[in-house]
Write a structure and sequence with these properties.
This protein is an alpha+beta fold. The protein has a domain of 60 residues. Helices cover 54% and strands 14% of the residues. The protein has a 5-stranded antiparallel β-sheet with strand order 3-2-4-1-5. Helix 2 packs antiparallel against helix 6 and helix 4 packs antiparallel against helix 5. The longest helix has 39 residues. 23% of the residues are buried.
């Protein structure tokens, strides 16, 4: 399998296909993030690391409520999504706040210019619209951050934070298992077809 073919999958093959994976559960997001950072430092592509999708999506796919995350570890029906680290989520929240502020500031400046407002009127209008952007963007960012925290807490209550790591050789298998255990991973194991080489 080529390097590109290993790290990237298509809808036809699916996120698992016949690939072999290391699996682990983590008690905290910090431990999981440390494990991912270590994996990436040791040559694993971010595209090889995945997490379960939203619980509602999983329950629709497996057609029953999630009782324990352990039951999802080796279930090929479980939908997945790419691993997103805390820094990326924080950056996303900042964009959610700053984008409406930027748009409304530009709109305020355009309105002021187009209507020939006095300087003080233009400032009041522009600042007012900017504040509306801060409040609106902050509201949605806060809601999204709350949803993210609730999702983590729900997973922890169901048994832990589940992580999958695709491997392409016996060396990668050993390295992934060692890294996952080093960062307090639980129930660390491999699944998928045994390598023939």
């Amino acid at each position: 399998m080529t390097e590109q073919g290993h790290w990237e999958w298509s809808d036809r093959v699916g996120p698992r296909g016949n690939l072999r994976e290391a699996v682990a559960l983590f008690d905290t997001e910090e431990d999981m993030q440390s494990a991912v950072d270590d994996l990436e430092c040791h040559g694993f592509s971010n595209a090889a690391i995945s997490r379960p999708a939203d619980p509602s999506v999983i329950e629709a796919a497996i057609q029953h409520p999630i009782e324990n995350v352990n039951a999802l570890e080796d279930d090929a029906r479980v939908p997945r999504e790419a691993f997103v680290d805390k820094d990326s989520r924080t950056s996303g929240f900042m964009v959610m706040v700053l984008t409406p502020v930027y748009v409304l500031l530009l709109a305020g400046a355009a309105i002021a210019s187009g209507h020939g407002l006095a300087t003080w009127e233009a400032i009041v209008l522009t600042v007012g619209l900017g504040l509306i952007g801060v409040v609106g963007g902050g509201y949605f960012a806060t809601r999204r951050a709350g949803e993210s925290r609730r999702r983590i807490r729900n997973e922890q209550a169901l048994g832990g934070l589940l992580l999958w790591v695709r491997t392409g050789s016996r060396e990668q298998e050993s390295r992934a298992l060692e890294i996952l255990r080093r960062h307090s991973g639980r129930d660390v194991h491999l699944h998928g077809p045994a390598l023939q080489h």
